Amino acid sequence: MPVFPSIEWFEQVIEMFNSDSEKDTAGGGACNAVVGVISGDNIYSLTFEATECSGVVALENEDDLNATDFYIELHPDDWKEMIENIKVNGAATADFTLNSLDLESPDGIARSWAEDQYRQDLFFRYNQTFQYFFDASSALETRF
Predict the structure, then answer these.
(1) Which domain holds residue 97?
(2) What is the DSSP letter of 110?
(3) The pTM is what?
(4) Cα(61)–Cα(86) distance, integer angstroms
(5) Looking at residue 99, what is its pLDDT?
């Protein structure tokens, strides 16, 4: 059972996400973005190309986020709550979607490392794809 966050966890979610053709319809579809994920001291980069997530890399520090288009930052407890909600419901419920969490956070959860609004806009443009990615974790037993 993989621990969130970890390379192993992301790789297993990537496998589930990429094998689910349903994500290619119903609002998902082609997405080209490099997305940072921050949970406490853990920092990762996910690469989305066309209709798949092509890989994950652990980053050494926040300076490495300059290679991402934007990053999603949540407190580890908030990530846990979202992932547990996905597990119980098969997908995030309204209060736990990336979009809802971004709207309800005073500073948002999607940020640009260089205040580049064009790159940060990819979060909103491809939001459903990123949500499908995290929703794919519903089939994964996760430890925190």
Answers:
(1) 7-137
(2) E
(3) 0.94
(4) 28
(5) 95
